[in-house]
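Shipment paperwork, digital attachment
Item: protein structure file
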Amino acid sequence: MLREGSRLGLLTLLSRILGLLREMTLAAFMGTGRLADAFGVAFNLPNFLRRLFAENSMTAAFIPTFTGYLAEGEDGAARARSREFLSATFTVLVFLVTLTVALGIALTPYIVRLFGTDPAETAILTRMMFPFLALVSVAAFLQGILNSLGIFGPSGFAPVAFNLAWIAVPYLVAGFMPNPARAMAVGVVLGGLLQALVQLPAVLRAGWRFGFIGLGRAWANPGMRKVLSLIGPTILGMAAYQVNALVSTMLASGAGTGAVSSLRYSLRLQEFVLGIFVVSAGTVLLPNLSGSAKRGDWAEYSGSVGKGLRAMILVTLPVSLFSMVAGRDIVTLLFKAREFGEASVLLTTTVFFCHMTGLVFVAMNRVVAPAFYAISDTRTPTRAGLFSFAVNVAAAVALAGPFHGPGIALALSVASAANTLLLILYLLGKRIEGMKRALAGVLVYAGRMALSAGLAVVPAYFLRRALDPLAASATNRLVGAGLPLLLETLAFGTVLLGILLVTKDEMLAGLISALSRRRGR
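Attachment content:
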C-alpha cells in the first residue's frame, strides 16, 4: 500500500498542483462574478453525473467483480470469460452514458432554471461540457481494469493530462471564443478525452482486449449482471452524496453573488489536500481489501481497515487544524489577483474554514466505504449516503439564510461526519473478526493526534499574529501571504514532528521504517 500509494500520490499531487493552477487561472479571469458562477453551475451538472457513472460507483462495483474473474486463473477458458465480461461492461456503460448525455443536452434549458445564475450562458456552457461525462466514464472503466491488475501509474497520470488540457487549451482557443468560460469548456472536454487515451495503451500492454458486443448479449452476461446489481445501490448512494453538492449550489445561487464560486474555490483547496494522499491510499486499498475478502482472511481485512483509518487521521487531522489557522494566507497566496480582490479572499477564507471542519470525516470515508465494497455490500453505503443527504439538506436550509455560503459549507461538513460515523457503526454490526479491536484503536489514536496537532498549532497561530504588520505593509502577495505561510508551516511542522517523535507515534514509526526498507532495496 505504501509503495503503490506513494507512486500514485506523487502523480495525484502533480495533478492537484495543476488543478490549483487551473483554479488560479479561472480566478484571475473571472473572479467570483457572474461568469464564474455560470461556469461553476455548468460544470457541476455533468460532473455530478460523472461521479454516478464513473470513478467511485464504477470502481466500487467493477473492481471486486473483475478481481473474482482474475482469481479463476489464466487458462484459456477463464481468460475468455474475463474478456467477455469486459466487453459486456464496456458496451452497457457506453450505451447508458450516451443516452444520458443526449438527454442532458436536450433538457439543459429546463435544468438551468433551477439555479440563480445567468440562464442563457449557463445553458450554453452546460451543453458544451456534457460530452465530458461519456469520456471520463470510459476513462473510469479503463482505470478499473488497471487497478484490479495492480497497475496504478497510468490512472494517476490521467488527471494530470486532464488538468494540462484545461489550462493550455483555453489560451489556444480563447481568441475564437466570445468569453473565457467557453474557452475553458473546450478544455474540459478535451481533457476528458485525454484521460481515456493515456490509460488505453497500458490496458493493451497488459494483454486485455475488449470491444462492443450485442446489447442483448451484454445484458445477459452474468458478470455484467453482478456489476449492475452492485452499481445500482452505489449510484443511489453516490447520487445522494452528489445531490448534496447540487443542493449546496442551488442554495448558494440564492445566497448572493460570489457564493457559488467561493464554494468552488474552497472545495478545490480541500480536494488538493485529499488528493495528496487520501485519494491515492483509498484507490490502492480497495483491491487489497477485495483480495483479503476473497481469501477469507478477515484478520488481515480488519487490520488493513484499522491501519488505513489511522493513516488518514495522521495526515488529515493536523492539516485540518493548520488550514483553519492559515486559511487566509493560503487563499491570498493562491487566488488573489485581478478580479479576485480582498472581498473574494474574505468570503473564500470563511467558506474554506467551514469545509476543513469535515476533512477528517471525508478522508475516513475513503477507507470505510471501500471496506463494504470489497465484500460486495453496496447497499449499506447507500443507506448511509441517503441519511447524509437528509442531514445536509436540513442543515443547509437552516444555515444558508443566516450564514450564506459559509453556512452551506458547514452543512456539508456535518453531513460528511454523519455519513462516516454511520458507516463505522454498520461495520461494527457486521461482527467481522478483529474489527472491533481495530476501530477501538482508531478512536484512541484520533484522540492522541487531536491533542498533538492542537498543541502544535498554537505557536503557528501566535507567530501569524506577530507577522500581521508585515502582511499589512506588503505590496506583494508572495511577501504578505507567502512568507508568513512558510514560517507558520515550518513552526507547525517542526513542533508536530517533535511531539510525534517524543511520543513514539506508531504510525509515523511504521511509515519511517517502511520508507527505510524501500531505500535499502
